[in-house]
């Protein structure tokens, strides 16, 4: 079970080590956080996933408040409801687990904590109405937590279930058709080849949350909102795009976002949560607007993660609800469900 006293000692030890050696932190637990409360929050969300991975609901109760609520596209779950939801996943997928994406780490901003997890398992029982396929699956989920009084009280999740449904043979691939619609070079496969990105121990996490917030506002009020590619010098020319659906570079990034904007001219990426620490910031967005091609109301969520370097956006990761995205764009049947 999570023990609250351990974090302050670990934080102090990591700070002392950094002061003595000037080492770059190897991960977000290793001297990245400048506040012992942030260190404790980092440990706490890791304890949450550790309890889930071990199926230990008693330990889960030790880090999650009784009035905990979890939100995603399919609705709101209580603490009990979330346990039931996770049991269904572990029954459907042998070895189902979340692992912290350590290249990004755990980002803490006041009472909000952001983390991206890689997800894996083997399909051994029914999932979303589809019988066992024996297929190994891998995907990602991104999470925003709210921590109060030493317990996790809220959780917002974006889970890429499209990748799971394709890997178990439940649906036809739609990723390439969506790329072609946006004018992006086709990856030529059913799934984008995501990369882990720059190691945390290379970039180290040092930076200014205030600068991150300024850059976030420029991007969301800029090309995300208007489709305009002007005044984009705040994006590094050699931007690293780890999602796999566009090549690296400022130009492909802007071209894709501008093209997406043109397909829903009245739409916006509405930032619901912003979490900034060091040289990293994480934004959860709810996308709206009317799709020109299909007339559908666009209703999907995403989590974008950026690394800032020299005052520019240098690297990007994301988790997108691709199932709803492709349905709204009309490249995937609207009746497909993931529960």
Automatic annotation (TrEMBL):
Biological processes annotated in GO: polyketide metabolic process
Origin: domain of life: Bacteria
Designated name of the protein: SnoaL-like domain-containing protein
Organism: Acrocarpospora macrocephala
Lineage of source species: Bacteria, Bacillati, Actinomycetota, Actinomycetes, Streptosporangiales
